[in-house]
Amino acid sequence: MDLNANITIKWDVMEFHDDVYTALVTIYNNQLYRHVERPGWKLGWAWEKDQVIWNMWGAEATEQGNCSKFKGDIPHCCEKEPVIIDLLPDTPYNQQEKNCSKGGVLSSMTQDPTNSAASFRLVVGNAISNGGSLSMPTNFSLGVPGYTCGPPVSVRPTKFPEDKGRRWSQAISTWNITCAYSQFRAVMGPTCCVSLSSFYNSTIIPCPRCSCSCQGSMSTTKCVMPNESPSLLRMPQDENDAIAPVVTCTRHMCPIRVHWHVKLSYKEYWRVKVTVTNFNHVKNYSEWNLVVQHPNLKSVTQVFSFNYKPLHQYGPVNDTGMFWGIDHYNNMLLQSGELGNVQTEILLRKDPGLFTFNEGWAFPRKISFSGDECVMPPPDAYPSLPNASPSHFLSISSPSIGFSLLFLFLILVS
Length: 414
What we know:
By secondary structure, this protein is mainly β. Helices cover 5% and strands 37% of the residues. The strands form 7 sheets. Strands 1, 2, 4, 7, 9, 10 and 13 form a 7-stranded antiparallel sheet that branches. The chain has a 6-stranded mixed sheet with strand order 15-14-18-19-26-22, with no helix packed on it. It starts with 6 loop residues before the first strand and ends with a helix.
């Protein structure tokens, strides 16, 4: 659902004299809805020969390495395969570079484009290769599960505006490295699932059994019985290390469940309630998002409690949209418990030429949570209309009329 999804690393050589050059390295997250969360990126590469990093701004190498052959000034890093990490937000300004000090976190292009890039500057010594040309490192890695980086590709030198755009300077040379994501390489299995229900059918379609793993299997995720708290949680020694999920014991065994409920049908509109539940006891999901594929999303009228933006991927086709939380309200999906869910309602206008509740039309074709695709129930299990019911079943002209009818019904029953 994201045609141009990748992370691009741009390596701009800004100054070059003798055997030393200065490079500006920028990491761009070009993905519309997948972000890089903590512990963040850890950019790695391999030098062609004996290059060293004399100095850095905006990032730092995790290891200095063996610099014993240098006397006097000691390089910042002498590793053959250095690993570079972002600085923390409280880093002194004289050590920072533009778009740094975020702890390695990169937002998606849709949610927060201003925080979707990171950059740092480094001074490289022993920069000339055996052929007499400037040497570029190889074997780049992003240090984030699921990403694979290609080789450096020489491109047109980057231009930089000066004097409020009246003059443009440019890099001596520029290389691009493209890193692509694969969910199959990132995790052993799915990480979320979808359940369905509707006002016109009393059956609730749960997540498929063993959507993410199975209880009792040797490789299953650790789980906690419902209404119980984990007795002992082993937290990582380093706060930047990934935490293995500990989920509530369910039939689906997923950390995240998305429930899509067709709530009401009016004469010209219909309403959906979407609930995202966190079953993970050891993780809060910050800057989470949902990407939904549904043919009626082109007629979204109002979204309550979430942000929404359509993702136009195939020209005039508008069947994919992205939902995410509102800052300081529900952009943090808390760990499993009473507060471990976020929800919204969506009001959509009916398309007279296409709209019908038959054949599961009211349910999404695909849902992703924070960039990973969720397991959907099989299409033949979707809630169906009662026998001999028209597609406009229980349609009401307005929300107020619907509530009035419901109130009248309750009086008659009582």
